[in-house]
Amino acid sequence: MHSVFKSINNHTLVDRVEANLIELLHQRKLKVGDSIPKELELAESLGVSRTVIREALMRLRMMGLIDTKKKKGAVITSPDIFGNLAKSLNPYILSDDTLKEIFEIRLVLEVGMADLLFRNVTKEDIKELKQIVKNEPASTKNQMFEASYEIAFHGKLYRISHNETLIKFQSLLLPVFDYVEKSSLFKPIVNPKKFTSHKQLIHILENGTPEEFRNGMRSHLENHFLRMND
Amino acid sequence: MHSVFKSINNHTLVDRVEANLIELLHQRKLKVGDSIPKELELAESLGVSRTVIREALMRLRMMGLIDTKKKKGAVITSPDIFGNLAKSLNPYILSDDTLKEIFEIRLVLEVGMADLLFRNVTKEDIKELKQIVKNEPASTKNQMFEASYEIAFHGKLYRISHNETLIKFQSLLLPVFDYVEKSSLFKPIVNPKKFTSHKQLIHILENGTPEEFRNGMRSHLENHFLRMND
DNA sequence: TTTAAGTATTAAGTATGACATAATAAAATT
DNA sequence: AATTTTATTATGTCATACTTAATACTTAAA
Q1: Is the dihedral of CA B163, B94, A59, A9 positive or negative?
Q2: Which nucleotide is closest to A15, CA to C1'?
Q3: Are β-strands A73-76 and B73-76 bridged in parallel, bridged antiparallel, or unpaired?
Q4: How does B195-213 read in b/e, with b if 16+ C-beta sit within 10 Å?
Q5: Which nucleotides of D are covered by protein (CB under 7 A)?
């Protein structure tokens, strides 16, 4: 497999040092806030140059495993799994295919998150959602392009899920969503049919079932799905 | 430039050089396989040391933007947004809450991916799925713990989605799933009720609708959902 | 002429030493 | 005691030299 080949070829010194350091952190069961030995000590104890140590430490930093400060050295941080992802999610450096796929993942998430919503939704949430859609333009035809309402409404849904990882994930994906919608990756489809509206989704969330909500959301996103399948 | 705004916070030189390099790649509209100037040239043209260039290039490499070879230099590669995520997804360094949330995301994805499946599924896929479940133990009670069958079956579903990003994402999340299931994060629920089985899911995928599949998958995952909500 | 073996070259990988900078600790001043 | 000044320290950056492996080139054998 690809990964096996790579691990054999992983013979650069920095790769091994990186692995060593990660293992070291695990072994010592270091907690958030603990500090690790300084670069020169690590260099000496592993028998490599400071250059190599620094490159390996930089990788750990990119993983969000450590945070380094000038005099204090490096300290363990609570790894923010999506933190480092942010940069590489720059739409400009992603291929069109990848962008499409990320957009698809959004659709999958929003259709599939119904149960999380029903588990946590409160009357206050409903009220907030109603407030958001209050001033929406009546026409559902171009609702797809009312970006700000879309972001506010769907963003609120993610927050209702109470899943911080999911929330963070979607906030990372937002620029991609935005880029894809504005791009010419998909030809715009102006479908005369009226799909489930935000207001209807709220009504389902208030009075209906997860199953109904999934179908409602699927319908609501119909235009996006249509655009994907060309 | 645009990068100047960000660089207000990016106070280390490497941060700015990294941004500069990304912008450079974007400006020149470099394609996969194209090579970028060598380290010394970049160092000279940006007026920084080779050390800084190297650290910045290493970040690009971690993002999967470039791949470096000894004599050839660095070449553009198709960015692998989740590549670098893999290491930081080590369950041992994630908090229990984050682990739970990642597990939830799995449930969301699998319930929500129905439309992608129906869009792409072929007769060969169905055949393969049937082959997988052929030797499954009959009892549905402990199917939750038949890890290998679970991985094979659900992994195949992801592949049917034809969404490479999604596939990669789940392959990253797999260790987390595995860890969470085996951990004591959730108390095991042995629910006597019979939920939708793999065989039934295949039948739906062959003859039914996305809506039915979503409900089937939701039922199939019922035990997991129950375990989440405590 | 073709091909295989050997060599030179090149650019990344690694090592070493030095200085700059900023955060902290220690000392001195009020 | 509180505040300012100074010294220390570990990371950040720079410069240079050497090592290694991949590529291009040359040469010798078929």
Answers
A1: negative
A2: C13
A3: unpaired
A4: bbbbebbbbbbeebebbbb
A5: 8-16, 20-23
